[in-house]
Automatic annotation (TrEMBL), chain A:
Keywords: Cell membrane, Membrane, Transmembrane, Transmembrane helix, Transport. Signal peptide: none annotated. This is Polar amino acid transport system permease protein. The lineage of its organism: Bacteria, Pseudomonadati, Pseudomonadota, Alphaproteobacteria, Hyphomicrobiales. Belongs to the binding-protein-dependent transport system permease family. HisMQ subfamily. It is found in: Cell inner membrane; Cell membrane. Residues 17-205 form the ABC transmembrane type-1 domain. It comes from Mesorhizobium escarrei.
Automatic annotation (TrEMBL), chain B:
The keyword Signal does not apply. This is Polar amino acid ABC transporter permease. Pfam families: BPD_transp_1. It is found in: Cell inner membrane; Cell membrane. It comes from Mesorhizobium escarrei. Residues 21-209 form the ABC transmembrane type-1 domain. Keywords: Cell membrane, Membrane, Transmembrane, Transmembrane helix, Transport. It is a multi-pass membrane protein. The chain crosses the membrane at residues 27-47, 67-85, 151-170, 190-217. Belongs to the binding-protein-dependent transport system permease family. HisMQ subfamily.
Amino acid sequence: MTEFSFWDILRNLLLAARWTVVLSLVSFIGGGIVGVALLFLRIGGRRGMRVLSRGYIQLFQGTPLLMQLFLAFFGLGLFGIDVPAWLAACVALILWTAAFLAEIWRGCVESIAKGQWEASASLGMGYLQQMRYVILPQALKVAVPPTVGFSVQVVKGTALTSIIGFVELSKAGSIVTNATFQPFTVYGLVALIYFALCWPLSKSSQRLERKLNVAHRNH
Amino acid sequence: MTYQFDFGWLIGSLPVLLKGIRITVQLILIGAVFGVALGIACAWVRTLGPKWLKPVVATYVELIRNTPFLIQLFFIFFGLPSLGIRMSELTAANLAMIVNLGAYSCEIIRAGIQATPRGQFEAGASLAMTPFQTFWHVVLVPALQRIWPALSSQIVMVMLGSAVVSQIAAEDLTFAANFIQSRNFRAFETYIVSTLIYLALAILLRQLLAGLGWMLFPRKASR
């Protein structure tokens, strides 16, 4: 039987942590793109579209991420595609992230005073122009801290993809535990690696919030 | 797509599903009560508590908020037995939920407490209230009233997050769904049904908490 040194364990976990990072980035960027589309439908768009996007957001916020992963994993298979775990993981995480980001950003857009919409409309701007030149540049400032804060949820959300068999940090933790029989050390280390990924994000979110609040007070 | 949907298994599997629902509801009820209690205690320490305890609680909160629930669960269920602390799946699941909700609700309640105007503390003291009475009647209850919506959302999030306790074989709703789909080979339908049940539970829990808030805080919010 091979003996595993502490270094062996840590090295394997760190190698797997790369996939946690990659998956987080893919879900966050993909979720951001889908989220923007949802946001446009949610606040502008036709009535039917507004209702539809609201339903989408409530559905994804009101069900467990784990169930969404299962549904993506088994649901994509219904179309006759052989679904690898990474694909199901990406699809589910992107759709889940999009729902939350769209809702966060909606709050930010709605925090912009109504007069701004009216003023830009009175200048003859269309909906997209209003968004592009007037609303979004102002909403962006409000949106940065909660968006960075939500990225922590995305990193933590990727842990669930281990359950459908995607090998990232959590799955690697289970595999290494099964090989070494040292659950305390291994899961402790896994937790610390997640902490190292998430804590800087949490802190910078808090710092940004404080900074932007100061900017608000100066108005 | 030539797939034929089949929900015929639903009737035969109803007892398993109902048991799963019962366990999930039980987990969140116990988790919410003790989790919020822990959150209140931690929020007290972080705002008005003894100085030496503050960094301990701050570390706890940061550790929990920056690691996935799944890993906390694994650490409690698989890791702690090496220290000689053993517990059943359900106990471990509930403990993990309490510890998790405790950290999140601590931050939420703390925000509520910090929004209390300074003068209210002084007013409480000038009425000869003990520090505990001041905390309870003057600080905590209005603080809870202020942050009740945020706290409710967090409790619903913990309920949805509890789906992963099936991974340590706690027999909740997700465990029931996994069990059923391994029997009927109708994975997609089974998970659709359990997802809809979770959605219904989430809506129900939200309504319940709104009603509870309405009962607990009959007075108008004081600003």
